[in-house]
Amino acid sequence: MKVLVTVVGWFIQLICLLACLGNTQWQDWRGIGASKGVPLPPAENFKSRPCGEETGLKLVSQASPPTSEQLDAARRYSELHGGQAMVVMWDGKVIFESYANGGGKDRLQPLASGTKSFVGVVAVAAVQDGLIRLDEKVCESLTEWKTDPLKSQITYRHLLTMTSGLTPGERVSAIRLPGWKEILAKPMVGKPGGQFHYGPYHLCAFAEALQRRLKSKTGETFEKYMERRILQPLGIKLEWRIRCADGNPQVGGGGAMTARDWAVFGEFMRQGGTWNGKQIISKELLAECLQGTPQNPAYGLTWWLKKPVPDSIIRQIPILQHEMGEILRSDWLPNDLFMAAGAGKQRLYVIPSLKLVIVRLGKFLNSRAFSDAKFLGLLLGGKEDTK
Questions:
Q1: Per mean pLDDT, which range of 50-64, 68-82, 178-192, 207-221 is the poorest?
Q2: pTM value?
Q3: Is the Cβ–Cβ distance between 24 and 18 less than 8 Å?
Q4: Among candidates 365, 325, 331, which has minimal Cα distance to 345?
Q5: How many domains does the chain have?
Q6: 110-133: per-residue pLDDT in tens?
Q7: Within a domain: 154
Q8: What are residue 368's phi and psi, to 5 degrees?
Q9: Lower CB density within 10 Å: C or N end of the chain?
Q10: In what order do the strands lie in the sheet with 239-240?
Q11: What is the pLDDT of residue 382?
Q12: Is there a contact between 202 and 162 (Cβ–Cβ < 8 Å)?
C-alpha cells in the first residue's frame, strides 16, 4: 500500500509539473534583435504564470519579451508626445528600435539630467580603483572645506545622494552653471545627511573632489577618467554639449548620446557591471548605486529607484510629487525597476527581473504630457491608451 501511495504521489506531481511547463514562457529565441521599427513576432503573454504552488514545486519562470502590439502601442504613445527615439533591449539584444520627430539612429541627443547617472557609476569605479571611499570626508580632497563646521562633515555619499546640504543649484538655465570651484563656495542650506535637495551642484562638487584626487595620482581629469574607465570599455560615446563656466563638463545635465549607446549603458547596469564577459566594475560596488537613503528612499547614487516612499517625504520633495510620483505609486511595476531621468522625459529604464532595458528620448517642449506609467503600461501590458 505504501508503494502504491508513493507511485500515485509521483504521478500527480509529474502532471502538475507538465502543466506548469506548459504555462511558462520558454521563448528565449525571441531575443534575436529586430531591425529599425520592426518588432519581433508577438509573444502569447508577457508575464510568466505562477505554477507549482499546490505541489510545493518552485520553478524559475522566464519572462518573455513584449509583443509587437505592445511595442508599437508604446511607440505611438511616445511619438504622440514628442518622442524622437525608442530602443528596447531584452536579454541583452535589441528587439525594437524606432525614430521619429527628427530623431535618428546616429543622432546624439541631450540626456539632460539623465547625465547624472554616469556620475554614480564613475564614483564606484573610483572606489574600486582605491581613489576614494564613499563614506570618506570630502574635505580631505577639498581642503578649503576643512575649516567649515558643516562642509567639513560632507562625505562623497552625501554628494552623490544629494543629501549634502550644499546649495543644490540656482533657478537658472542648466547651460549657465558657474565653475566647479565657485560651486564649492556656495552656502549650505542644510546639514550633511539631513535632507534631500535635487540639483547639479552636489555632483559638480563631487567631480571637482575626484578630479583633484585623480590629478595627484594619475594626472587625469574627471572627463578623461570617465572616458577610460566607463565609456571606452562599453564602446559608447558621451559628448559634453554643456560645460560649466570654467570649461569643466556640466556633469548634472550636459551630456548627449545616441539612444543605442544609452541602452548599452543600461544593459551594463542590468548585468551588474559586466560587458562582453568582462567585469568592468564590481557587482557589489555597483549595487551601491541602487541603495536609497532615509531622506529619499527613491534615489540612490544618482539613480532613481522604484522604492516605497512615505507620503511625508513625497510632500517635501517636489520632484517626487510631479515627476516620479506615478512610478512610485504604481503597484504593478516591478520593484527592481531603476532609471536615469532627464527633462524632456529623457528616460533610461532598467528592469532586471524582466530582462528589459528601455530608452526613450523626446523633444523638450513636446514631452510635458508624457506619462511614465502610461508608456510602461503600454509596453509591459499592452493597454491601449494614447491620450
A1: 50-64
A2: 0.83
A3: no
A4: 365
A5: 1
A6: 999 999 999 999 999 999 999 999
A7: yes
A8: -60, -35
A9: N
A10: 109-110, 255-257, 239-240
A11: 52
A12: yes
Residue 170 in domain: yes
Q: Measure the CA–CA gap between 387 and 382, rounded to whole angstroms.
A: 14
State the angle between helix axes of 372-381 and 68-80 in degrees (0 to 180), rounded to the nearest 10.
160
Q: Which amino acid is at 114?
A: G
Of 186, 161, 158, 190, residue with least CA distance to 172: 186
Taking the chain, what is the end-to-end CA distance rounded to the nearest angstrom? 65
Q: Count Cβ atoms within 10 A of the Cβ of residue 154 and give its class: 0-12 exposed, 13-18 middle, 19 or more buried.
A: buried
**Does the residue 63 lie in any domain?**
no
The mean-pLDDT minimum among 23-32, 275-284, 329-338 falls in 23-32
For residues 181 and 386, give the distance between their C-alpha atoms in angstroms, rounded to a whole number: 46
CA distance 173 to 117: 20
Q: Which domain holds residue 137?
A: 68-381
Q: Is the dihedral of CA 315, 317, 323, 325 positive or negative?
A: negative
The CATH number that applies at residue 215 is: 3.40.710.10
148 backbone φψ class: left, alpha, beta (φ>0; ψ -120 to 50): beta
Phi, psi of 261 (to 5 degrees): -65, -40
- Angle 113-278-95 from CA coordinates, rounded to 5°: 60
What are the cell numbers at 106? 546616429
